[in-house]
Amino acid sequence: MSSTPELRHRADGSIGADIHSSTVRILRIIHLLRSAGGDLLNQAGLHGRLAELEWTIEKRRLADMLAAVVLAAAALLCMMIFAGVLVLALSWDTAYRTASIIGLIAVYAIALGLAWQRLAKRSAQGSNAFSATRAELEADLALLKHQL
User: Fold this and answer.
1) What phi, psi does 95 have (nearest 5°)?
2) What is the percent of the chain where pLDDT is above 90?
3) Residue 5 pLDDT class (50, 70, 90 cuts)
4) 109 in a domain, yes or no?
5) Which of 15, 84, 85, 121 could form a disulfide with 9 if both were Cys (CB 3.0 to 4.6 A apart)?
6) pLDDT band at 4 (very low <50, low <70, confident <90, very high)
7) pLDDT band at residue 1 under the 50/70/90 scheme
8) Do 20 and 26 touch, CB atoms closer than 8 A?
9) CB of 87 within 8 A of CB of 100?
């Protein structure tokens, strides 16, 4: 039996010490996980609640964005149709026909710019979605890595 390399190394003490230290390390990890099992389950439940709360906030933000887009599109469409018809009807037989059309286009552009600005503001808030959950998970993973 002493002819195998494992037994020869074990007789020197080098392989045997490595196996013993890795076994002890694995047993410590298992003991740590068993003792922290309830705490890990509670922490996972807290993460679930936090994710649920952040998802509710994110849904509310997205619904607000959708409502703003729909409202802006409807208002812009109505305004464009009726204001355009009115301006063209009032200025058709005058010398201000071209100026009134240019003014109408300018008003449409301003309305579009305001709607776009609101949408951009809401879209920028999307990067903050679930930031608390991500931070908590990163902190817990760092703690687990430190403990192991």
Assistant:
1) -80, -10
2) 12
3) very low
4) yes
5) 15
6) very low
7) very low
8) no
9) yes
Task: Work out how many domains the chain is built from and give that number.
Answer: 1
98 in any annotated domain:
yes
Distance CA(72)–CA(65), nearest Å, equals 10
Does any domain span residue 6? Answer: no
Is residue 1 one of the residues assigned to a domain? Answer: no
Strand, helix or coil for residue 95: coil
As a whole number of angstroms, the distance between CA 144 and CA 37 comes to 12
Q: Which domain holds residue 98?
A: 53-147
- Which is more confident, 69 or 136? 69
How is 100-144 classified by DSSP, letter by letter?
HHHHHHHHHHHHHHHHHHHHHHHHHGGGGTTHHHHHHHHHHHHHH
